Amino acid sequence: AAAHLLAAHQALEEGDFVQVKASAAQALALEESKDGCALMAEAEKQLSGPEAATVWFARGMDAPRDNGWICHRCGHTHVAWQTHCGGCDTFDTLRYERPEARVTSVEVAPVAKA
């Protein structure tokens, strides 16, 4: 999916909205993402008008967040990989993953019985 999204972004820079739509559709067929929906919305807006884009904007609201660099110690999300986490300053704790896929300590903590 990442290669298709990259191709869609490149087509967007070139103003080739037909290719943006084709590449974004291929990416979305493999994996739903906010980025893919936003690209489709922009392509539809340019090709068919603003009304056609609203469906994709709505779909993007429900789409999973895109992958990012997440610290496994504190959960801080980064746009780009770094050697140290900007949240807790630990070394080499960033992993590239979808934010919803991360299990937090709260989710695995035993529930206290009243």
Task: Briefly summarize what is shown.
The protein has 114 residues and is mainly α.
Describe this entry's structure for a reader.
- This protein is mostly helical and 114 residues long.
- Helix content is 52%, strand content 9%.
- It is built from five helices and three strands, in the order ααααβββα.
- A three-stranded antiparallel beta sheet has the order 2-1-3, with no helix packed on it.
- α2 runs antiparallel to α3.
- It is elongated.
Strand content: 5-15%
Provide the low-confidence segments as ranges. Answer: 101-109
Helix/strand structural class:
mainly alpha
**Average pLDDT, all residues:** 85
- How would you sum up the global shape? elongated
Helix share, percent: 40-55%
Global Rg: 18 Å
Strand and helix map with partners:
Elements: H1 2-14, H2 17-30, H3 34-48, H4 50-62, E1 68-71, E2 77-78, E3 94-97, H5 105-108
Antiparallel strand pairs: 1-2, 1-3
Helix pairs in contact: 1-2, 1-3, 2-3, 3-4
Keywords:
mainly alpha, 3 strands, 114 residues, 3-stranded antiparallel beta sheet, 52% helix, 5 helices
